[in-house]
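User: Teach me something about this protein's shape.
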Amino acid sequence: MQSDKTKTILPLNKCKTFCLLTLLILSMFITSGCWDKLEVNEAAQVEGMVFDLSAGQPSFSIQLAAPSSNNLSGTPSTEPLNISETGRTYTEAARHIILRLPRLPLWSHAEVVILGNDLASNDLAYAMDFIARNRNIRKSAVVFVSKGATGKECLEAQVPLETHSSAALKKLITIQEQQLGAYTPVTMDDFLKYLSTSGIEPVAPQISIEEVEGKKQLRLDGTAVFRGRKMVGALNETESQGFRFLSPKQISGGLIVIPSPLDQASDNNSSNMISIELTRSQAKVSPEIGNDGSIRVKIDIQAEGNFYEQTFTGNVLTLEGINKIQTLVDDSIKSEVQACIMKAQILNSDIFGWGRSVYRKDPALWTQLEANWPDIFPVIQADINVDFQLRRTYLLDQSFEFKD
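Assistant: First, the predicted structure itself:
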């Protein structure tokens, strides 16, 4: 039998629950109404943002998705709107945009950030505190560095089939990674982390402008390499592929082109080539520390791929031919990795995080080596082992046969 006290408590609890649910439902309607009003009438969607230096002064540019209401013909507009302003700081430059824009920019929508060549080559300290501190800048945004042009000029160039160059850049870097596998996408979160972490330096894919049939178009063109707060050089396409093969994460997608194994015993004909589609690759990198404190880096790469094309006659898909193809792919990957390591050591930039690997293995040793790492990194020897396995040949189980 319930006491009078219990009978009194239960209705009160029910009343409190009902009141809380009512307030929650009302707050949802109120919040939704205010947000919708801001989205439609007072805000502008930012597609991308650019950080340049103009005459040594911060210059900030944005690309907006133009609303349909600005088109007097009644036809929805798809043309982007680019706006640039300067200031003593990037915060001031960004606020100066409000002097020309009657809507509040939604910064957090931007999925692409372009760092101008002048800024990257001068000092990233101009912009990084603003980027890291600002909660409205999406840290999952993809970072690019302009090459041979300002970031603003890159923003104003075109990308085929797309009207918004900044949004197109994210598609471009994603699709090429799946199909060609030359360049590694870098998020702002990773870029900031590597800038502030000892024992590793950041990189970012570069974009340049080329003229095609009288139109300025963007293309991916190398990988910017940083040391500290400055860009010190770049990897070319081959070296960038080597960098991607050194990723500790599993990668997939890409293309490897090798000469025909049938030409190896005779004069090598450069027109006889084979295309291999990379399906999976992963690198295991570990530092080996000698008793005298010397360091060598051991690199083991396990990869798989499929036979995609040959440009000559003759059946190479025999047991002997497949073994030779696998060896040639091993050599190709190793050559690209070696080229990347050599360029990074010439630039004296530990973009691989070997210093961080030493720290993880022996924190006390890293404490001793950290100050002298710029002298140690360029002379580290790397032992590279690649094991590639051919898995599939798609619709044909042997090379295409022509009639006699």
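Now, about its shape. The first helix runs from residue 4 to 42. Residues 5-10, 29-38, 69-76 have pLDDT under 50 and may be disordered. If you'd like, I can walk through any region in more detail.
User: That's plenty for now, thanks!
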